[in-house]
Each structure stands twice: as C-alpha cells, then as structure tokens.
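ZP: hey, is the succinic acid complex queued? I don't see it on the tracker
AM: it wasn't, my bad. submitting now with these inputs:
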Amino acid sequence: MSAVYASIPSTPRFSEQSATPDSSFEIRQLAAPLGAEVLDLNLDRSLSDEGFARISQAFSDHHVLVFRKQDITPAQHVQFSRRFGPLQIHVLRQFQLPGHEEILQISNIRENGKPIGLGDAGAFWHSDLSYKAVPSLGSLLHARELPDTGGDTHFANMHLAWETLPASLQKILLPLRAEHTYIKRYEEQRAKAPWRPALTQAQLDEVKPVVHPVVTTHPDNGRKTLFVNEHFTSRIVGLPQDESDDLLQQLFAHSIRPEFIYTHKWQEDDMVFWDNRSVIHLAGGTPDDQRRRLNRTTVEGTVPV
Ligand code: SIN
C-alpha cells in the first residue's frame, strides 16, 4: 500500500474560526482535521430549538464537539444526550453508574477491590457499538476525574480515510460488507485485564455478530465514510480469511494516518460528543498510579447504508 499512498494528497490544516450570528455561544473549529469547541454554553439547562439546530449542524460538520466547563449532573448529561435520540444500554451492566442505567462508567478506579468502570475501554481503535445491528449515532463522554498525565483520547476522521483511498480500491470496497462482533478481542482483553467479567450466555446473545457495509453514507452530511475498525470488525463477508485479514489490516492502517487524527487532551469538566458514524477513536491509556473517571452515554443511530 505504501506506493499507492505516495500519490494521496496531504490533508490541509484548519485554523479558521467560525463566528456565530446569534452568539449566545461560540463554536470554534479546532486546528485539526476534525473537531470544534463549544464555548459559553451550559448544558445544565435545556437548549433552545435554535441552539440545538446550531449544535446539530456543527456536529455534522466537525464530527467531534468539545463542550468546555460542564459541571453538570448525570441526570443533565442524560437529558442533553436524549435530545439526539434514544440512548443505548451497554452490555456490561456491571459498570453502569448507580441509578443511571444509560451511563457507562469509564474508569480505572477500584472501590473495595472492585472496578467501578471499564478501565480499558477503547484500547483499540473503534466506533462505539458498531457490533450492534443498529449502531451508535454518537457518544457523549463527560470528564469527572482526570489524571495528571496521560488519558488522552484520539479521534480519526473516517470521511478523510475514505476520500483519500485510491479510486481503484474504492471501487473494490463499495459493494463489500463486513462482520462486526463485540467478542472479537474480548478474551485478549480479559487475558490482560482479568477483572473483566466473563460474558454470560444472555450477554453473548445480546451481542451476536452483525454485518454492515464497508462503505457507508452519513445520513446527515451525505458524505461517504469507511466503516470498519480494528476492535470489532472481524472479516469481510465472502472473502477467504487470509485475504480478508490482509485487506482489513490495510484499511485499519490507512484509517489512522496522522493527518486524519485529532488528539483530545482532557480539561476539567469537558464533555466530548463524537460521531460514531464518521470517526473512530482510541483511548491513549492512563498510568496505573493515576485515577481517571468519565461518564459515557451512547445515542442510538440508524441502520448503516
Ligand atoms: C471509549 O472508547 O468510549 C473511551 C475513550 C476514553 O476513555 O478515552
């Protein structure tokens, strides 16, 4: 693939600021291939229809929105998330925030010897819940306790990944479909993190493998996107396993070229909303002696086409 990549043009850098006409809050594009900050907006109260329309448009345009300084409650987090659609309940119910089944705790903290959350969530590049027949529209992750070092989250723009593939490869990929499965790396993760619970039969039944197109069209912005990820995509349907593995490896490597990536360095009370239909993400990792705790909601999307 490297010879092919040599002909791919490099991604432009962005630095433009988009001022808002009615400016009760500001949306400022990040100097990265995706992402924007939302400033001077408190999510502790309900957003006007006009404000919601601006946020929705910015989400469609920038794929990752960083809402700064959100000292809000879990109930307010859930309420804001619900504006975008029904919320999905994660299969590992052990790690729900008590009293809020819609919130998955992402945390390396142990209380009374037991993990309170998924400490190794996002250890491989992925799109949340791509293993569901109806995957996620987006996820909202709210920082509650941050480490002094580490704990970054990386996001890769899958529209750019698709658009920079050679036309000959795009033509091959367009009709293909791929299997996604939650258990692809589950045992590998358990071997490294034995605190991960063994899945019950009921949990396994909830996450049976599904098949999605390799190339999807974003329902809001109409752009095509590469919809495969190393965490959950297990094979290309109809190809011998070795060919499927080769092709997927090639696509996984291409998807995370540095020019497609924004790295989020968390600040206190950040709420980050990302589009699982157009980005994949990776948790950069936290040193063992540092505490990290974030709350995540996941909004249901539509069947990918
Ligand atoms: C996730 O994959 O949802 C978690 C990302 C993170 O912890 O940075």
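AM: back. The first helix runs from residue 2 to 5.
ZP: great, adding it to the tracker
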